Amino acid sequence: MADFSSQPGMHGYFAPARFEADIYDCEVTGQIPTELDGAFYRLHPDWLYPPNPPDDIALSPDGYMSMFRFRNGVVDYKGRYVRTERFENQRAARRQLYGYYRNPFTDDPSVRDPDHPQRRTTANTTPVVLAGALYATKEDGLPHRMDPNTLETLGPTDFGGAWKSQAFTAHPKVDPVTCEMAAFGYEASGLCSRDVFLAIFDKAGSITRDWRFEVPYTSMLHDMCLTREHVIIPGGGSVTSLERLHEGKIHWAWDSSKPSYYGIIPRDGDAKDIRWFLGPERSIVHTANARTEGSKVVMEAPMADGNTWPWFEDLAGGQFSAPKNTIRRITFDLNSKDDRCTEETLFARPVTSFTRVDDRRLGLSYRYIYVQYFDPDQPARAGTHPQMRYAANSFGRFDIQTGEIRSCFGGETHMLQEPSFVPRPGSTDEGDGWLIGTAHNPCEMRSELMIVDATTMEEVARVILPFRNATQVHGAWFGPNDLPLA
Predict the structure, then answer these.
(1) Per-residue pLDDT reduced to its tens digit, 303-323
(2) To which H or E segment does residue 243 belong?
(3) What sign for the dihedral angle of Cα 170, 161, 92, 114?
(4) φ, ψ for residue 390 (rounded to 5)?
(5) How many domains does the chain divide into?
(6) Which portions of the chain are predicted below pLDDT 50?
(7) Average pLDDT, the chain
(8) By CB atoms within 10 Å of each CB, which of 123, 303, 382, 400 scores lowest?
(9) How many Å apart are CA 315 and CA 3, to the nearest integer?
(10) Does 433 reside within a domain?
(11) Domain containing residue 232: CATH number
(12) Residue 110 to residues 97, 99, 113, 405, 467: CA-CA distances in angstroms?
């Protein structure tokens, strides 16, 4: 029997949802733009069975994919679990079989397999499209192909054996000019290894070139940036070891003595051409965008000055203090013999790490960064969920050229998640389109989907679900040119 009654933080609005659903012709306030034709996919973690041990972290739950299908001003909803090997094993056993986050040594003996940690992935992080196919991804395992219309899980793939890593990033990047995709896997040859496998896929989904190299030290490499000439992979701060895993601990800890590091990989070069740059202690979870300007590579990203992961112990014994993310610019001078990078804060306002851009400008000069954040000047209704004291309540458009911030307030009872940009059909102007993002409404015990005009930052419509949807990690919009949508 599944019993979540003793699980901390899994009550009320944030209790596991544990159901699959279809809703036809969702309730809508406002007017859905008729030009919106496509599907907004979300991946979110949702426990099928209670975690074991109970203090496992929020990155571990089973993957659940939801889809909002927009067509002719109407929205349909569908939600399904990603049926990974882990999910099916638990369902057959009717109990939790897997232990701490990314530590297979803590798994039940019936499924324990430290040599193949990718088999325990939950595929709960980012919806990705490659060569007309939809995948559920998580950085600790292989992508799981999903039917874009039924959300049936079709299974994991190593792309016919061409993918030479046990894991695949949840943040591949697509060059909007060539339509090539860059993707990597870290701890590529096994637990705690330093090696990274990086590859470029062509539009048809074939790998056209690849690299294998070692990072300065094993650390979480969650995101990446792509320019027309380079791939940038940032890391640092988080550390692990086989000794740590054998002791039965969560995969990562935080070492404040470790520098941040950045690998700058020439897209037309070899592994020997990679430049490593170092910076001070930083947490970089997600990136915004980057470009190559002559001999310099310039990247914008939300960054914090210390550990932003409340679940990763501080090896120095310090208490978690939740340092704030701010949008910063990091510059790498490839002509310099110095391995240090320079850093500039672009906006002092704290934001979440979930930055997005108009993907048609990836790797190119651009203007706008979109991100949700907490605006303390906006009202919050007394008696709402305790997290309302600090949860993101606004979508923001941060103009890196003028320094202007324009925002859309989600409501005094709402907690917002990552916005995704959808371009207006027929327009090539950066930022001409809509932002789509989830709003949690704990007072009404339901989830809502906001549609915001990205040029005016005014809300135009909201899709109302008659239930609460699990907290999203990432979402993505894909149209009929990306997927064979029914």
Answers:
(1) 999 999 999 999 999 999 989
(2) helix 242-246
(3) negative
(4) -145, 0
(5) 1
(6) none
(7) 96
(8) 382
(9) 33
(10) yes
(11) 2.130.10
(12) 8, 12, 9, 53, 36
